Each structure stands twice: as C-alpha cells, then as structure tokens.
Amino acid sequence: MGEIVSEADSVTIMDMEASLEHLSRGTVRHVDALLIVTEPYYRSLETARRTVPLARGLGISNIYAVVNKFRSDEDAKLVTEFCRNNDLDIVARIPFDDDVTKADLIGKSLYDFNKASPVVKEVEHLAVYLRENVPVNGSSASKHLSKPNC
Amino acid sequence: MKIGISGKGGSGKTTISATLARVFARQGLPVLAIDGDPNPNLGMALGLEPATLENTHSIPRSIVERIEDADGKMRMVLKDSVENIAALHGIAAPDGIRLIVGTKVENPGAG
Hints:
The complex is a heterodimer.
Chain A: H1 2-6, E1 11-15, H2 21-25, E2 33-38, H3 42-57, E3 63-70, H4 73-85, E4 90-95, H5 98-105, H6 110-113, H7 118-133
Parallel strand pairs in A: 2-3, 3-4
Chain B: E1 2-7, H1 13-26, E2 31-35, H2 42-46, H3 50-54, E3 64-68, E4 74-78, H4 82-89, E5 91-92, E6 98-101
Parallel strand pairs in B: 2-6
Antiparallel strand pairs in B: 3-4, 5-6
C-alpha cells in the first residue's frame, strides 16, 4: 500500500477485524497510525493497553486509544487515571449518543442522520489532531506534540 | 496517511471509521475506506443506500492468493496494488469516498 500512504494528502482508513489476531498477522504493519477504539471501563481500557506493545512490535509508532461511548464524570475520572498510570495516549473521548443507534436502526450513516451529533464533532477534532500529528512515511512532522486529553 | 482502526466488536470502531472517513472527505481529501471486518458493515455506516449495498461484493477471489507464512500459518494476500483494486473493484460511497470490501484479505505490503 506504499503508493497510497506516500501521498500525504490522501487518507486510507482500514476498519479492522475485531480480534487482536490481525496484529500478529501483519495486516496493520503498514499503517501510519493505529487507533484502538475502547470503551470507558477498566477491562476495555486494559485490553487497549495490552494491544500497544503488540502494535509497537510491528513497528507502528503512532498508537492511540480512542475512548468511545463516554457518559459521565466518573468515566472521565477513570480514563484520566488510567491514562496517567499507563503508557496509553488517549486522543479522543467520544461521548455516548443515542443518535448512533437511531441512525443504525434505519440503515443510515450517523453523518447523514445528524451532522451536529457530538460524536461527529469529536471525530472532527480527532481528524485535525491526526493531520497535525501523524507523520506520513517518515516525514519530519514531530509526533506526540500534544496529548489533548491527558 | 494510512490509519488502522481496531477494537473489540461492539466498541463502535465501524461508526468511528466511517465518520472519520466522511470528515476527511468533507475536508477535501481523497479517501479510501477498507472494510477488513469479517462481518462487513462499513458501507452502511458510510451512508451507502441499501439498494447499493445489495450490489456490493468483496474483492474477487481471483486477485487473492493464499500464501504460507514462515510460522506455517496460511494467509491471504492481494495480487494487485490497493490503488488498482480500488479503481477496479472500489465502490463509490458518499463524498467521493472509495470503499473496498476486502473480507479476510491482506496486502503483502508491496503497494
């Protein structure tokens, strides 16, 4: 997939299979960044944390956790604490939003169902962060310039 | 920029993948979306109509090759570059996104 990633102005997004198995099989070997989607409870965060060394072993240097279905101040506390205690960069906190389920029930994309959804807003911030912080194919853009949520 | 998105089933990775693809596309970037989940539903999450989805297909078997890894595991690799596959077998999704449904298919990394 070299040609695609060498174009800094194009984006390839791979929705991976659910298990961690793909990491050992090399599917993600050539990505510039790996986003690990996790939910804000301990076991889910712990699974995300354990994925990090596997991904690093494949040579992926930009590994981020995206916390999804964020609901409360308690979630915020848990995530912040987990983040502080572990080597896990959390780059987005996506709130829980009923519109995700509503859109799914009628077979629509969330984006078409409600562009103003807080989920879309947070993903917009994530997109900006990725464009500013992920070096493409060895470009000199420095990484980890900031950890917006930590 | 190539972004892999992983996570347990039910974590919402497909919603986030699709929304991220739409956001990048709306910013004017060419976006290729690859559905690598064995139970593919990225198409719907991207906003494809049900009628269009019915006519979508995975990458044809003819461009997929089975090879054996050093550790003896069989895996699937693509015989062509992702660019060519996107051009030939990609599905047009909203905002100019190209979608490849490549269930259980891997790229050898040759590009």
